[in-house]
Fold:
Amino acid sequence: MTSTLATAVRQTKRQMTFHCCDACERVLSIEEIIERHCERCNALTRPTEVREAA
Ligand SMILES: [Zn+2]
Structure:
């Protein structure tokens, strides 16, 4: 499953496994992910398509 997921991630670069801010369209840092908000626009982040391997 891991290899399949990795391939999917490579093909769909817009939907990565990490968090992104919909407003800023940028990748959030670890701290922002933990805080669950974007430091730039202060918007709440949506944990969508998050499939981190434990
Ligand atoms: Zn933002």
